[in-house]
Design brief:
Radius of gyration: 20 Å
Organism: Brassica napus (Rape)
Number of strands: 15
Helix content: 25-40%
Protein name: Oxidoreductase family protein
InterPro entries: Gfo-Idh-MocA_inositol_DH, Gfo/Idh/MocA-like_OxRdtase_C, Gfo/Idh/MocA-like_OxRdtase_N, NAD(P)-bd_dom_sf
Domain Gfo/Idh/MocA-like oxidoreductase N-terminal: 9-135
Shape: globular
Largest sheet: 9 strands, mixed
Pfam family, one: GFO_IDH_MocA_C
Distance between the termini: 40 Å
Strand content: 15-25%
Strand order of the largest sheet: 14-13-12-11-7-10-9-8-15
């Protein structure tokens, strides 16, 4: 990093809860010669919280009410997009079209529709002077990263099944309650579960062929009303996915399961063995069919590079290190736009399967 004497200047578009989380993570890697210099957000209370946070970190911010003003200020080299899901498409298209190049880290989901994701992907192909990475950071959580390393490192066998359980708390309250409606989020299986569909593709080393899902809004948000409208986001689902190499994936989602010891439990089974990752316990287990239950190994997964745990067990910290390395030409973007598109498409297919109570082929949504 010593060769990069110029400070890499970051701007953050959307400075709500996740935007401020990015600000804190970037402050923890400031020794890598970077600074957050600008923010953009139309919501004055969010601006104020960010200004107070930045002052406590000894950073002075340029404050703008929209991403266009931030772009025109030309104060940044890099833009983190952490605004509400339904705003991603327009913001990304504007950044990509802007003459001065800005590297982009966009929060998941890439966009709320497959068509919007494709448009961003095509536009970005014309900008070889920009790195665009999608914020699917769950792959960096230490237990998940350890499981990925084991599964993809050879000797694990052919992966046949990937089962991911997320049992957690309901969606948090966001500015103007934007996350209570499918039209804004893309639907729960896009907004929340794109993380898990991304992990399934990684573990399976394959692309999805078809999706079957069952789900509903059975407990949460049913007594809430916003501008005369009742929320329509599902709070539980089972999703089964078939991959082009014969592997199967299953997602078990429940968002009224605060009584769970672990929020995520990931199980990957091959023809010769099995691996599991438990979050937040930070436990990884490996066993073989030959060795049986008595020889299952249990490992506490840790990553000494993490200096700030934050909201996602250190994965956002590692995501920023990887992204910075990519924009400095030391590696490729770890999670590219194709990954972002496929994670959204799998979620869209699952939402459609629930809505129409049928099997959905990926060709339909892609």
């Amino acid at each position: 990093m010593a060769a990069n004497s110029a400070i890499t200047k970051y701007g953050i578009v959307g400075i709500g809860m996740m935007g401020r989380e990015h600000l804190i993570n970037l402050h923890h890697i400031r020794h890598q010669n970077l600074a957050v210099v600008s923010i953009a957000d139309p919501h004055p209370p969010s601006q104020l919280l960010a200004i107070e946070l930045a002052q406590s970190l000894k950073w002075d911010l340029n404050v703008f009410s929209g991403h266009e003003e931030l772009l025109e200020s030309e104060t940044c080299d890099v833009i983190v997009v952490s605004s509400p899901n339904m705003t991603h498409h327009r913001i990304l298209m504007d950044i990509i079209a802007y003459p001065k190049p800005h590297h982009i880290l966009v929060e998941k989901p890439l966009c709320t529709t497959v068509a919007d994701c494709k448009e961003v992907l095509e536009a970005a192909k014309k900008r070889s002077d920009m790195v665009v990475q999608v914020g699917l950071e769950y792959r960096y959580m230490p237990p998940v990263a350890k499981l990925i390393e084991k599964v993809r490192g050879g000797g694990f066998g052919d992966v046949k099944m990937v089962a991911i359980r997320e049992h957690r708390f309901p969606f948090l309250v966001k500015v103007n309650n934007w996350n209570r409606f499918n039209v804004n989020t893309g639907g729960t299986l896009v907004e929340k579960c794109c993380h898990f569909f991304d992990l399934m593709r990684l573990f399976a080393s394959a692309d999805p062929v078809c999706v079957m899902a069952s789900g509903g809004m059975d407990v949460n948000h049913k007594d809430e009303v916003y501008d005369g409208k009742v929320p329509d986001i599902i709070d539980n689902a089972y999703v089964i996915i078939e991959f082009d190499n014969g592997c199967r994936g299953m997602l078990d989602l429940c968002m009224f399961a605060e009584g769970s010891k672990n929020e995520q439990e990931i199980s990957v089974t091959s023809d010769i063995g099995k691996g599991e990752a438990l979050v937040p316990e930070g436990i990884v287990r490996f066993g073989t069919r030959e060795g049986g239950r008595e020889h299952v190994q249990t490992i506490k997964a840790e990553d000494e590079r993490i200096k700030y745990e934050g909201l996602h067990h250190g994965s956002s910290y590692l995501e920023h290190l990887m992204f910075l390395s990519a924009i400095r030409g030391e590696r490729r973007a770890a999670v590219d736009l194709e990954d972002g598109l496929m994670a959204v498409a799998m979620g869209v297919a699952a939402q459609l399967s629930i809505q129409e109570r049928r099997y959905v082929s990926m060709d339909e949504v892609l």
